[in-house]
Amino acid sequence: MKEKVLIVEDNPQNMRLLEMTLKARDYALLKANDGEEALDTAVRERPDIIIMDMQLPKLSGLEVTQRLRQMAEFNHVPIIALTAYAMKGDKEKFIEAGCDAYLSKPIDTRELPKTIARMLPGREKEAPDVGGKR
Ligand code: MN
Q1: Cα dist. 64→48, 68, 88, 104, 117 in Å?
Q2: pTM (2 decimals)?
Q3: Among residues of the chain, what percentage have pLDDT more than 70?
C-alpha cells in the first residue's frame, strides 16, 4: 500500500511545488489548504506523515499539531513543520508542540523527500506489515 502523505499548505504556488516534488515518489498525496481542512483530512484519511505549513488560515499549523497530538491515533504520526519565518526559538516551539522535524522556506526540493523518507517507518526496512496501525 502506498504511504499517505498529507500536505497542508495555503499558498497555491507552494502547494504546487510540494506536489511536484513528491509526485515522482510512490506516495498517495492528500492536500489541505487551511488548518480546519488539515484536521478533517487527517482524521478521515489517517495519513502516514504530515507536511505542515505553520502559517495557515483558520487554525495555525501549531494548533493543528497540538490538536492532533491530543488524539491517541496521532501520537506517532510524523509531522514535518514548514515555515517561512524562522525566528529564534521557533524551532523549539514547533518541536515542543509535537512536530518531529522542521524545514524552513523556501522549500528545499531535495531535502524534503529525504526528510520524509527518513521519517516514514519501514520505508527502507521493508518490515512485513502485520496488519493494524502503528
Ligand atoms: Mn502559509
Answers
A1: 16, 6, 21, 18, 22
A2: 0.88
A3: 90
